[in-house]
Write a structure and sequence with these properties.
Length: 172
């Protein structure tokens, strides 16, 4: 049945024969490019997020500018600037390292915002946990205060009855 299909449409046969020849070389470039770029992007993202989270005055502004630029421009424009723009100013970079740099910087900007938000959420989570602990302890403190008041009232009642007993002995 497939032979009939390939005979009916010779273009399908050509595509089926050439597909592995195209796919395998593409995968040998794409997988290392992805692994290297993502690893570098995570390093960039963590560094940028920590700088923003620590609120280092000048460095925070530089990180915000970097994130603004790389998140605000399309990836294709960034690739074109590196491949075609840098050689015009005398900087020549081989295609694979250029792609790694652009993908790393682009993905690093996006991941930096994610990591920063996670750090800030973690901070608010720990603050919420601390507030809950304070509330729990203050509720326990109120319980203890009520117990102390009840005990003091019982002690006063015992002291009053003891005074009555002592007063009864002294009158006799």
């Amino acid at each position: 049945m497939l032979e009939n299909l390939f005979n009916s449409f010779p273009l399908l046969g050509i595509l089926a024969d050439s597909f592995p020849k195209i796919l395998i070389p593409g995968l040998t470039v794409t997988i290392p490019l992805t692994a290297i770029a993502f690893s570098c992007a995570m390093l960039i993202a963590v560094a940028a997020a920590i700088v923003q989270f620590a609120r280092v005055p000048v460095a925070t502004q530089l990180c915000r500018f970097y994130i603004w630029i790389f998140r605000g421009t399309p990836l294709l424009v960034q690739l074109f600037l590196v491949f075609y723009g840098l050689p015009k100013v005398g900087v020549r970079i081989e295609p694979f390292p250029a792609a790694v740099i652009v993908f790393s910087l682009n993905e690093g900007a996006y991941c930096a915002e994610t990591v920063r938000a996670a750090l800030e959420d973690l901070n608010s989570l720990s603050q919420n946990m601390a507030i809950n602990e304070i509330v729990r302890k203050s509720e326990r403190t109120e319980e203890i205060a009520v117990e102390i008041q009840n005990q003091a009232e019982e002690n006063r009642e015992m002291a009053d009855s003891l005074e009555d007993v002592v007063a009864g002995f002294t009158l006799d």
